[in-house]
Amino acid sequence: MATNLLILHHRQLIAQSVVSHAERQGYRTVVNPSTLAEAKATALRFVPDIALVDVQFDDDNGFRAAHLLMQLNAITRVVLVLPPEAEHLQPALLTDASGYLPDTFDLPELDICLQHLRDRFRYISPTFAAQLHFPLPTTDPAVIARLDGLSVRQKQILILTCRGLMISEIAEQLHISPDTVASHKKNIANALGLKSRRDIIYFMSSYGEWLQANAQLVD
To answer: Given 51, 103, 143, 193, which residue has the most CB atoms within 10 angstroms?
Structure first.
């Protein structure tokens, strides 16, 4: 089944380039309603699986558009496209979008980002990684060894966390208590040298292959 991709970008030339590329990759695309109201109507009709939203869309209404799309359709995963400077990242993270790309992204990085979202994981561009309080690494064999050393239950909780589930949702899916989930998450974070749920999600965006290889533990 084709993935529906909605593109809200303030520059038509870039939007059309993305559409042409995405359609060659098998996506069904709708490009560039010009206002927030048109974006809402399009999202209700088209029901996008993924929405690529430029924060400068409709006179800098991209953040509002992102929130609106996530409220309208629970299945829609939003990728925010924003300038690479540090001051833009923190407000973008508050949207809890599923992906973050710089507005200088190239098509190979777009492919990586979209594949992460299709696999139900999140993505943050390496451009933004160094702006967080820890650097996102490239794939490190030592980290893979620590991931492989987690218990089956810890791997399940890690995978579901990276899919955006909260503690209560993970507990319900795995039929365990929220306190047990929280305890496992603390141990996972300690094993990886991290502190928070957000840290885990963005750190693991460098380990999509490991997540996909272990996805059968929860699917």
So the answer is: 51
Phi, psi (deg, nearest 5) at residue 198 = -60, -40
Instruction: Give the mean model confidence (pLDDT) for residues 104-127.
Output: 88
CATH of 4-129, one of 3.40.50.2300, 3.40.50.1220, 3.40.1580.10, 3.90.1310.10: 3.40.50.2300
Query: Which one, of 134, 130, 139, 149, lies nearest residue 112 by Cα?
Result: 139
> What token pair was written down for 154?
């810890």
Q: Band the pLDDT of 138: cuts 50, 70, 90.
A: low
Q: Do residues 50 and 117 lie in contact, with contact meaning Cβ atoms separated by under 8 Å?
A: yes
> In CATH, which of 3.40.190.10, 1.10.10.10, 3.30.450.20, 3.30.360.10 is domain 141-217?
1.10.10.10
b/e 34-59 (16+ beta carbons within 10 angstroms → b): eebeebbebbeebebbbbbbbbbbbe
Q: How is residue 87 annotated by DSSP?
A: G
Return the minimum-mean-pLDDT range out of 10-24, 77-91, 108-122, 160-174. Answer: 10-24
Is the pLDDT at 7 greater than 70, yes or no? yes
- 1's CB contacts (< 8 A; 6+ apart) are none
